[in-house]
Specification:
2 copies of one chain form a homodimer. Chain A is built from 9 helices and 8 strands. Chain A is α+β, with helices and mostly antiparallel strands and about 230 residues long. Among the domains of chain A are: about 60 residues, Arc Repressor Mutant, subunit A; about 80 residues, SH3 type barrels (Roll). In chain A, the strands form 2 sheets. In chain A, strands 3-8-4-5-6-7 form a 6-stranded antiparallel sheet. A two-stranded antiparallel ribbon of chain A has the order 1-2. Chain A is globular and about 55 Å long. Chain A starts with a helix and ends in a 5-residue tail after the last helix. The structure holds a DNA duplex (30 and 30 nucleotides).
Chain lengths: ~230, ~230
DNA sequence: AGAGAGAATTAGACGAGTCTAATGCAAAAG
DNA sequence: CTTTTGCATTAGACTCGTCTAATTCTCTCT
């Protein structure tokens, strides 16, 4: 059995591989998991012993296929749990992250299957992120990009919200911005601020660091990608 | 924060206090948790440091009020989870124990509240055990006693099934014996076997060690105790 | 009361996961 | 081509939960 800690490292490495260029540096892992670099070094050595990562000393690590399988399994658990907590237990989508972060390591495969069945095998979690189906990589939705990259006047649909901070998510939720929301870019202010107008006509202004968390796509892309059942 | 391990010790001590005479011996705790006596000793020392148990060296331990509160909280989590897994996720009541045993240490108070609400604040879990409500001790159902203690011909109702072995529970479940089942003691054989007749007329024979796990009461007591909404 | 049996505790070790401080490597700057 | 700088690793220590082996306590039996 793999410890919860090891699963956390694998999950972090998986995410970091997608965000930047593999191999993933030890210090990056350390930062992500809020541990010191020596701790990260000793953990990746253990992961290497178990053939979950490939390591080039002084360079960094990449996941082996086995490591990736574990990472995806954990991510699947996480997203399934987030969906379950929101849909079945009435949690607010902004507060499910913490709970799922812990539970993801402790549910059985049986639990996973039953939850997936109860939710009717969902493809996307409440943040709009795809739920990987076991061995398969989630289809990375390339049509989605950061809100800030679009010019004024662009008509867009929120694909997902890449944020882990519960306060910020609550703010967006209250403002009416969730996956599926349609909006138009009203103004991109040079002072690090973006204003959008929602379907109902309300406008919402957001500082760049929050706007960056909002991934959008044009409604046409949504149909083309077949991911519109959010 | 208390570790899952410490919670396990507290829960075990709580159960052992009810089953026998406090103080609870170190070796008994060790046996229950399948660790060696020195391990149990060192853990109870730590529990003492945190004022969760009172200890008399070479004698044993008793829970302090704080320790008992924690134990009850964990037991509440366990039974709530068992109920949830059976009612909402369609688990068989015989297979929920393992899953609940792990999850009980990892759910938040928020999760606990929401599950309790979703289940409509249940008073009893699928095994027929009362679900303690936070600070309050569960009402110990004194009218319930072991099936084997009743003579032939006694008309009884199953109050709870005190067993943790999944195979045995499945067997009883298949045989139609669950909390709430009405039955009549047909024969108490001197070879360590008890035969009962169920409502439908079927008879079931059980070896003593299994019959002992079945706690029963007379249907009148059930009404008097107000625990009949099983 | 004294001896022995049986249980509990102490002593010392280990793996996991973490830290700080010291050292080593490698890539950029000169 | 050598130096510097910055990240990575090694060294060594600590806590938690566990173990085995050795020791000590308590209680019962004669």
């Amino acid at each position: 059995m793999l410890s919860a800690k090891m699963e956390d490292y694998l999950k972090a490495i998986y995410r970091l591989e997608r965000e930047g260029e593999p191999p993933v540096a030890t210090s990056t892992i350390a930062e992500t998991l809020e541990v010191t670099p020596p701790t990260a070094t000793s953990m990746v050595e253990k992961l290497e012993d178990r053939d979950l990562v490939e390591r080039e000393k002084y360079k960094g690590v990449t996941l082996t296929p086995e490591g990736e399988t574990v990472a995806l399994e954990v991510i699947r658990h996480h997203r399934l749990l987030e969906t379950f907590l929101t849909e079945e237990l009435g949690y607010d989508w902004s507060e499910v992250h913490e709970e799922a972060e812990i539970l993801e390591h402790h549910i059985s495969e049986e639990f996973e299957r039953r939850v997936a069945a109860a939710l009717d095998e969902p493809a996307v979690d409440p943040h709009g992120d795809p739920i990987p189906n076991d061995e398969l990589e989630p289809i990375d939705d390339h049509s989605a990009s950061a809100l800030a990259d679009h010019g004024e006047g662009a008509r867009l649909e929120v694909a997902r919200v890449r944020d882990r901070d519960s306060e910020e998510l609550t703010y967006l939720d209250d403002a009416g911005i969730t996956p599926g929301t349609k909006l138009v870019v009203e103004e991109v202010a040079p002072i690090g601020m973006v204003t959008v107008r929602l379907d109902g006509g309300e406008t919402v202004s957001l500082p760049d660091h929050i706007a960056d968390a909002i991934q959008v796509r044009t409604p046409e892309d949504a149909v083309a990608d077949g991911v519109s059942e959010v």
